[in-house]
Predict the 3D structure of the following.
Amino acid sequence: MTNSIEMQVAAAVDEKRLWDRLMSMSEYGATPAGGVNRQALSAEDIAARRQMKKWADEYGFEITTDDIGNLFVRRDGTDADQNPVTTGSHIDSQPKGGKFDGIYGVMAGLEALVAMEDAGIQTKRPIEVIAWMGEEGSRFQPALMGSLVFTGQLAAEKAMSVADSNGISVEQALRETLDADPEIGRRPTGFAAAAYIETHIEQGPVLELEQKTIGVVTGIQGIRWYGIEVLGEEAHAGTSPMKHRKDALKAAAEMVGALEQVMEDETDTVRCTFGRFEVFPGSPNTVPGRVFFTIDFRHPVTDDFEKLAAKIEPTCRAHARGCEVNIEITLDALPTVFRDDMVETVHKHTKSLNPPFKVMPSGGGHDAQNMNRICPTGMIFVPCKNGISHNEAEYASPGDLAAGTRVLAACLVDLANR
Amino acid sequence: MTNSIEMQVAAAVDEKRLWDRLMSMSEYGATPAGGVNRQALSAEDIAARRQMKKWADEYGFEITTDDIGNLFVRRDGTDADQNPVTTGSHIDSQPKGGKFDGIYGVMAGLEALVAMEDAGIQTKRPIEVIAWMGEEGSRFQPALMGSLVFTGQLAAEKAMSVADSNGISVEQALRETLDADPEIGRRPTGFAAAAYIETHIEQGPVLELEQKTIGVVTGIQGIRWYGIEVLGEEAHAGTSPMKHRKDALKAAAEMVGALEQVMEDETDTVRCTFGRFEVFPGSPNTVPGRVFFTIDFRHPVTDDFEKLAAKIEPTCRAHARGCEVNIEITLDALPTVFRDDMVETVHKHTKSLNPPFKVMPSGGGHDAQNMNRICPTGMIFVPCKNGISHNEAEYASPGDLAAGTRVLAACLVDLANR
């Protein structure tokens, strides 16, 4: 480890302080089973924001919020005219979420700023830690709402009119959230960022299985959802000859097998899941006349994504066995590919800090995929136990969380001095 | 057509009279959609029994009922000491049943007796037309209740205590039914029959597809039901590597494909149906952790039935792909094989009457499978439109119904003179 200023800041990252802040945050929305339920713009979210303000005030960092409820904690640079380098993640959680998903990226950013204070290091550019509003999409849809509006992909007016299951609109919930702490300053939504870098738990088992501490993230895999309806003919299981049947279940099962072959991949990069699979009428002695199933297909490389996705519909049709097949795409996001220089920045500082690491794509979606549209973007992963996330049992170790924060701190200082 | 007494009686069968009686019966429990809902021992059943008594009285046939509610219409033979030849089927229907399932076999039997009257023909043995109680099993389980008790396979006390979904027991419903028409004589349950021969609609499409009028039935296929539970592991569709998954859906789909191969059969005799197929938790982006599916397996030949059935469990286990597999047999009935001389009797008179015919097993279960345990038994099928049964749209043509009745009448006279 050289004595560069990046390494000095990394060394100032305090594992215990980071952990204690994470545990403090997990009290806002704590569930009896040890998880967190902290919905976007809820009372628990408001309390967590208030805690953020206390910490920002403690170090003299400016704290502001934009019109869609994204929260910003800023450490000034020496050159106030420069666009800021940004980091962050989200405060909101799944209804039965864990203590790390999202909030880790926010606390890691804050800890990096504090480490810079402790190390007495100034950067040229300001650095801003962002807590994106409504990443999970569990209260308000779509998911990633705050970063979608920030990056101009979703109109603020459209977002404002979205209501939760109780009929409370984003607009109303936002007003309550912003009114609750008027000392948090206001700013317009959207600004030019020099870069964005997000730390997150992996939410999968790969790092743990391969005993790696850091994931150097290359991008976010593309995802496409299909709804497949197979329409055959109901018939009597005892009397209807097999050769005359149009059995929707047998056709659908054959489609699953054929798609498995199409998706076969030595490198284990493809993800293909048949999560919903419903069979009608569902009586033991009636030949199924209708099956509806979903395909969740993901791949991180755009070419392969498109090439494999293009085989899904013809494969289903080729195995219809006389049934009618209706195919609908219900979700579609092409792969996000981070710029090489951003992946290289994370890679370089990871190597300097020397934890075991793996270069890998992200399996889940993140606000980073929206920021990647407006500025150079990267991500840093740390392991989570058994790959479990979106679950109250979610766990990541203090050491791994600190390791990810050290890489982040080094990257931020590096990027903020460019 | 020779002028044998069998052919004389067959010629006396009156197509219009048979059809009119069937249509009269279909008014008891008529549904708005043109079907029939006539549950065992219901008010509709009681009304149909009263109509049976009127017809029996008209021709001087004795009408009696036994202690489980089976109804008997008897035409005496010349030798009162001889065991009767029997025929029949059932009056009860599915909740959304048709106008022919069951009741056709009873009306065909009655028409055969009347044809003997009209032809002025005496038989040596008496002939009894039986309406079995509770064949469908839709109100009281098990199905085939009346013939199970009659043939000593189900204790009467056990049957009596069975309750319907409203808590009304067979005992109570029987008392009401028998009290409703005290002029119908009582007799003990069970007697020695010389033979039993049942006419029924095919309830499948084979005769229609092959343009045959008569099915010479060789037996009733064996049936075995399996419940298969496949236990894998839930995982995140985006982050969980394919190689580490235990995907219950993919395993179950592979089992279906493998079982299809095991059951492959050029002669199209095997029946194998996966009617229920339930996948949990059923979320598009969660790898299924549990699948439950049923197998309905049928074959008419005992050896083949046993040989193929023996492959089901090992095939499922061979394709478990790391999942746990739990297998339960929930229904089990070996094939029923009718005696050659009974099949030959039906065959012979069918050939004499000369309709197009097919020698075939029965796909569905019938009271004949119980009678086959105590006396020589046979069955005669006629086509039903599109193979549809257990459905308000069930239909059979007057001409086909009469053709089946002619074969029955000839067989009954033949058997009753042996």
